[in-house]
């Protein structure tokens, strides 16, 4: 029997929240490409390789305007090196690649210390602080970003041009690593009304989401003494409590149009 259905498409690394969203929205979900007869599809950090090169159904959903977060746009931002080049016109930290890191250091285009990472990662895994040339020689990372001495770090959630949540990274304990603010290094997000997040920071995240062609995303932004820097745009972040509820509400609005 032919019937209409909605589907949330997530990856293995984004499946915890993806499954929660599917349950709360009352729709199907999974890591495989949208099933036959899918009417509307939400992409929650899925990757194009999960489609196994079978794209006709996916392209049909996109052409009908029924895919929230175009899978091709998500792919552009999931490749963090590609995203850095895409966002180069915005306020992002100086960066380079493994092929050019030594030359760019010598030429002064970038300065130590550097934060090294792979072009694909999730949850802050695989980050390493490089303090000297010996560290660089031992590194096989894809991206080398200049470490920015910041006051604080925020995650700004944008859904179809609207701010739906601003979170601040706070240390869990006195041993939290100040150089890499990840959960594994002793940091978590706190949800309050942060008056210190000013409009240019929000606009940078909106600009990045628009450049990537996304409908929604969560931008990680550093605030410094003299400005701000965009670190990345996330398309399948872990959600809980009221932030999860806000996404559910916004997605439901889109599904019911």
Spell out the key features of this protein.
257 residues, 4-stranded parallel beta sheet, globular, 5-stranded antiparallel beta sheet, single chain, D-amino Acid Aminotransferase, Chain A, domain 1, 3 domains
What's the total count of β strands? Answer: 13
β content, as a range? 25-35%
Q: Give the fraction of residues assigned to helices.
A: 25-40%
Structural class: alpha+beta
Radius of gyration: 19 Å
Shape: globular
CATH architecture of the largest domain: 2-Layer Sandwich
Assembly state of the chains shown = single chain
Mean pLDDT: 90
Strand arrangement, major sheet: 11-10-9-12-13
CA-CA gap between termini: 24 Å
CATH fold naming of the largest domain: D-amino Acid Aminotransferase, Chain A, domain 1
Largest sheet, in brief, is: 5 strands, antiparallel
Helices, by number, come to 8
The figure for the number of domains is 3
Identify low-pLDDT runs. none
The topology string of helices and strands comes to EHEEHEHHEHEEHEEEEHEEH
CATH class of the largest domain: Alpha Beta
Please explain how this structure is put together.
Helix 2 links the parallel strand 3 and strand 4. The protein starts with a strand and ends with a helix. It is an alpha+beta fold. 35% of the residues are buried. The chain has eight helices and 13 strands. It folds into three domains: 65 residues, 3-Layer(aba) Sandwich (Rossmann fold), CATH 3.40.50; 95 residues, ATP-grasp fold, B domain (D-amino Acid Aminotransferase, Chain A, domain 1, 2-Layer Sandwich), CATH 3.30.470; 52 residues. It is 30% helix and 27% strand.
